[in-house]
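The freezer alarm interrupted the setup, so I double-checked each line after restarting. Inputs confirmed:
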Amino acid sequence: MRVVFLSPSYPPEMQQYTRGLAEVGAEVYGVGDQPASSLPRSLRGHLKDWLQVPRLMDEADVIERVSHWLRGREIDRVLANWEPLVILAAKLRERWGVPGMSVDTVRGFRDKQLMKERVKAAGLRVPRSERVRNDHEARAAAERIGFPLVIKPIAGAGSADTYRVESMAELDTALAKMRGVTEASCEEYITGEEFTFDTVCINGRPAYENIASYLPKPLEARSNEWISPVIITVRDMYQARLKPGVELARNVLTALHMGDGFTHMEWFLTPKGEAVFGEIGCRPGGAHLVDQMNYTGDIDLFREWARVAVHGRFEASTERKYNAAIVFKRALGQGRITRIDGLGAWLRACGPWVVEEQLLRPGTHRRDWKQTLLSDGHVLVRHPDWDEAHRMAFMAATDITMHAGG
Ligand SMILES: Nc1ncnc2c1ncn2[C@@H]1O[C@H](COP(=O)(O)OP(=O)(O)O)[C@@H](O)[C@H]1O
Ligand SMILES: [Mg+2]
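Predicted 3D structure, all chains:
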């Protein structure tokens, strides 16, 4: 099997998917913007060949270069697990007649207005929303939708340029900050808890399912630096309270004609117990969500995704053993990390339930918490009992503090 995998080195977890592909017997042809010589050695061992392109986001240019590079070789799959490249992968598949989701299908997972229109057409609950291209359209949409509302880029990520607004005046303030955004989605604000619904699908049917709880919802986590965002996979994901979400999510996959691979959906559970669609991508969640899923069931979804993508089979256990909680920390102050307080006590208190501790060490420069949910590092802890996992996660959120300065 010859597999073209776009950007196997970045974001860093792509190296794990590349490993998975190699482990299930694929010959991996990697395409990225780094020189081959700067690729990690561990990654190089999993690649059959490598093409460096000058601009990975320039679709027309990449299509020309990759087609030229692979001329005369039969390609079986073209895959991408990073959001900005899913359309490019579909374009390459269409150009070469390789099986997999079409460009039109993938657009339903990429364009936030189109996805809601398609999901709504299937009779499922989505926020009322409109596509807007300028301030005038945004104000007109706001008149129809009402406040509070959310305005966000049509093809955004990581809550960037996303605003909750309560009035026309606040909308104008938000629009002024969104100058670089050419198309936006203006939508009804949905009150409630926010969850993920993640799958590995075979022909649109989940071979694997996961729900994780956002504490708090991503927009709040990205709006307040003092928050330590917590995300916990829900071991008991088929409990009655979450059933509407499971049903909604499965129907969304059918409505959008999902094929093979990962999906990452977000949805809201309203105080009345109704599930409302948020958004969906045909790729895995980032920020270590796949690691959390792996810790939930002691499995390797990097490899199982590859097995599905290449052979159409999923062989891991779907038994859920733990609630796996990740806690992202943000240091107080600017510049370099100077010290971490409370870590030793937290590690001792949680003992064997801690599975990862990856806080940035003193001396390291802080990350930009608005740019990356990874913030200044994370701890990951798991427990079979929800309340215990939740307690240990929030202990890390409140009792571990990181400091920076100078
Ligand atoms: N209609 C909505 N109602 C309430 N909150 C929303 C709505 N749309 C987005 N949000 C909040 O903004 C966050 C980011 O929006 P989302 O559509 O998920 O874009 P991104 O691609 O940036 O993740 C969501 O996780 C949620 O917290
Ligand atoms: Mg989102």
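Quick read of the result. Residues 304 and 314 are 6 Å apart (CA to CA).
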